[in-house]
Amino acid sequence: MRRVKLSLLGVVAGAMLLPGTVLAACETITLGSAISLTGKYATNGMHAKNGYEFAIQKIKDAGGVKFGGKCYNFNVIYYDDESKGDRAATLAERLINQDKVQYMLGPYSSGMTKAIAPVTEKYQIPMIEAEGASRSLFNKGYKYLFAVLSTSEQYLASAITLAAEKAKESGKEPSSVKVAVAVENDPFSLDIRAGVLEDAARYGMKAVVDEKLPRDLSDMSAILTKVKLLKPDVLIVSGHSKGAATAVRQIDEQNVKVPMVAVTHCEAADVTGKFGAAANDILCSTQWAETLTYEDPLFGTAANFNTEVKAAYSDYANKKVPYQLAQASAAVYVFKDAFERAGSLDKEVLRDAIAATDLETFYGGIKFSEAGNNIAKPMVLRQIQDGKYNVVAPSAFASHPINWPRN
What DSSP character marks residue 401? Predict the structure, then answer.
């Protein structure tokens, strides 16, 4: 009887295995990342980590990374860089020398990326980063640094084009537009300033305010007093999440009247949740929006990605999915694509495969220049309209007309 039972169990077990079933478990590819989980960049650092993990699980659920007759799942060793550049560099060294990591995902912010890039370059470790947009990262001749996002000088330059268009509609010359700029003293924001001022100069516009935000980003009242006095037509603010929150709050508190206000990091700062109607009609730069018509075989459409992230992370259920999360997922997707095309774990072969990337994704096109920046995807501007983020520029991507003037 015992032998009969065992035989029957064997028949049942065999019946459960479909033809072609592979019993071997997927192996692991270990990535490393120093990321800001505490300090001033913690909010966006967590968005980036969530984006990495969402993509890793999505790839695992789809059968893993497949090449050479095997499958692999990604695993990431994370360390908290505390939003400090020197610590980020030290942790990159630790990941490479102690943890033996051969492939890196980037940190959050241009400053942290700028601290880590010399380390990954020194050890010839391919790094795909999603959160360091400063164009100064891509004039150093790095061969192992690749960024999926658009570079920082593009972030708010389209606001200047919009201001020029509105001036013409009002019967004025674009050169009559007065510009105010207030940015954090960090590589990312300084590049935004440079891009805005270059575009303003192209139209003959005058910068009547050009200021650095206070170091702690908690009070820009002195700058706003100057803005009220000089009455610019457009105000540009870049100070990551904390700077965005400070700008929206104090513009409202001081009753600052500017026809056009454009700010970075609106979603990450949750300006609609924190300040309600005070955030209405502010323009917000974004790398990605769920309304864009991007799509890929893994994540589906941008809208589908948005829906699945909200289901996976309750923190985003009632707010916008930050573009920082989306681009982090895109970085992991590029690693998957590159490993499969490389067909190898060799980091040099992989580096060349990354450099040859030409990929359409839910996040947009991804193709790298020789310098390592993405040249296949534009920035867009969204305006907060009755608490909702609607794409208003460039016109080719606009889902809604812009509300102008703001006040």
Answer: P
